[in-house]
Design brief:
Elements lengths: L3 E6 L1 H5 L3 H10 L3 E8 L3 H7 L9 H8 L4 E7 L3 H9 L12 H5 L12 E3 L3 H12 L2
Antiparallel strand pairs: 1-3, 1-4, 2-3
The structure holds inosine-5'-diphosphate (IDP) and magnesium ion (MG).
């Protein structure tokens, strides 16, 4: 089966009207969109999604941020899409993410407790499978 990854356009990206530009970059790279929906996340879904970060200082602000508005959840498909989308997204901190990346071009430090960095992308085959199950069902 072709590789699949979970992409989330976080509430900052949706609010700022950047969903289309983010999707355009995914498509321009040659990946296809297998699933797409906009939703308001629940605390339960976010607790599952961010289980690895529970207990970290940015965990609560991260969950509050992800609850602050609609999210666009996407399953993207194509060979190498997992590292490929991480590369399109850029590094976690938008201040220093490379120009040319989603976070580098559209993100910045807003002086908040959590990095508002526009997108999430799965970081491994195992995470992708787990996360697609959380957001789209098995
Ligand atoms: P990633 O999204 O690049 O994979 P992770 O380390 O998995 O980064 O962190 C999940 C999310 O938590 C980040 O995208 C960012 O929104 C937030 N975050 C991560 N590290 C920090 C931090 O040190 N301070 C504030 N927020 C953070
Ligand atoms: Mg991560």
């Amino acid at each position: 089966m072709t590789e699949r990854t979970l992409i989330l356009v976080k509430p900052d990206g949706v609010k700022r009207g950047l969903t289309g530009q983010i999707l355009a970059r995914v498509e321009a790279k040659g990946y296809s969109i297998a699933e797409l929906k906009q939703l308001n996340a629940s605390r339960e879904v976010l607790a599952e999604h961010y289980a690895e970060h529970e207990g970290k200082p940015f965990y609560e602000p991260l969950v509050e941020f992800m609850l602050s508005g609609p999210i666009v959840a996407i399953v993207a498909e194509g060979h190498g899409v997992i590292p490929g989308f991480r590369s399109l997204a850029g590094t976690t901190d938008p201040t220093t993410a490379a120009p040319g990346t989603i976070r580098g071009d559209f993100g910045r430090d807003w002086g908040l407790k959590v990095q508002q960095n526009l997108v999430h992308g799965s970081d491994s085959v195992e995470s992708a499978e787990r996360e697609i199950g959380i957001w789209f069902g098995k």
